[in-house]
Write a structure and sequence with these properties.
14 strands
């Protein structure tokens, strides 16, 4: 049976394009649409949909207001935001994650782009990944979410946390970063697959709601314990050892790797030559396998400890599944236990 998706957008042309894209996939159908959040609210009070594709800016009731109303009334919906590349929309989209949206896709700047293959592929890939995870959870065997190996780790206390996530990551990070203590005894470098501008909004929002300091990484930033450095959209992030033994951020402008920029594999590869005693690798929800190749390469040079989010709490069980299948996961934990597990492994200064 096809998954029934509700489309909410104030532009008739954009509604038509999004509906056509959804209906072009045999797994989905978009028969219902709404012109604003108020219409959507009335529909969602009486009708259950498999998913909602929701615009940010709309008259009467915008996307954020709709999410707030649904949350207030206890109405559950799987919501994917459609957001333009403006700073204002990026800020609203980050807040939408706090109010229940599971992820977002970038809204094209014009109708020609909207009818292009990139937007179609992006929208359908997010929808497909979410429902593939739901299907996996229904059909899996109990052993599927268990770690395959347990390895000994370094006794050294000079550690760094390297975290990777993708689809569902902005929402997941809000259940991880704010729970890390201000005195975390390690720096954190973080790759989240997002466009330019959104990583800055995400970092700023996480900084607002966290004890630990969070910022979008800049070229030359010296890594400090108790700080989180978010790879900027459109740049690859590397960690480089300085002559004095400290470490700094290096941003490079190499082409996307498998369509990803930033790419977690590049971050993990750069840590092969670092001066840290151990790298605590954390893999959260996301499509694909980014991070696995880099972690496997890193393991050949440095002691590592790998923490993976479990299937039950992933929006998309892709990246965590890939690293678990590779046999290098030390702990598989639910999302709400990730921060506690990180802190347990690196300590508090």
């Amino acid at each position: 049976m096809k998954k029934n998706i509700l489309v909410v957008d104030d532009s008739a042309l954009m509604r038509r394009v999004i509906c056509d894209i959804i209906n072009s996939d045999n797994n989905f159908e978009a028969k219902d649409f709404c012109r604003d959040g108020l219409e959507a609210y009335e529909k969602l009070k009486t009708t259950t949909y498999d998913g909602v594709v929701l615009d940010v800016n709309m008259p009467r009731m915008d996307g954020l207001q709709l999410l707030e109303q649904l949350q207030k009334d206890g109405i559950k919906a799987t919501v994917i935001m459609v957001s333009t590349l403006t700073t204002e929309d990026a800020d609203v989209t980050m807040r939408a994650m706090e109010r229940g949206a599971i992820d977002f896709v970038t809204k094209p700047g014009n109708i020609i782009e909207a009818k292009g293959e990139a937007f179609r592929k992006n929208l359908l890939s997010v929808l497909s990944a979410v429902y593939e995870t739901k299907s996996f959870l229904r059909t899996r065997t109990p052993a599927a979410a268990k770690p395959t190996t347990v390895r000994h780790t370094s006794t050294g206390r000079n550690k760094i946390v390297a975290l990777a996530c993708s689809t569902g990551g902005p929402k997941a990070l809000q259940s991880v970063i704010p729970l890390l203590p201000k005195g975390l005894n390690a720096p954190v470098v973080l790759v989240q697959h997002m466009p330019v501008g959104f990583t800055k909004s995400m970092a700023d929002r996480l900084d607002e709601i966290s004890e630990i300091a969070v910022k979008e990484a800049e070229e030359g930033d010296k890594l400090e314990k108790g700080h989180v450095y978010v790879a900027p959209g459109g740049k690859h992030l590397e960690v480089a050892k300085c002559p004095d033994g400290t470490h700094k951020i290096v941003l490079n402008d190499m082409p996307p790797i498998g369509g990803l920029k930033p790419c977690a594999n590049i971050m993990y590869d750069s840590l092969r030559d670092c001066g840290y005693d151990e790298i605590v690798c954390v893999v959260l929800t996301g499509m694909g396998q980014d991070g696995t190749k880099g972690i496997l390469s890193l393991e050949k040079k440095k002691p590592i400890y790998v923490i993976s989010q479990d299937a039950d709490t992933c929006i998309v069980y892709g990246m965590p599944r890939a690293i678990a299948d590779a046999g290098v996961v030390d702990e598989v934990v639910p999302l709400n236990d990730v921060a506690k597990t990180i802190t347990k492994n690196v300590g508090v200064k």
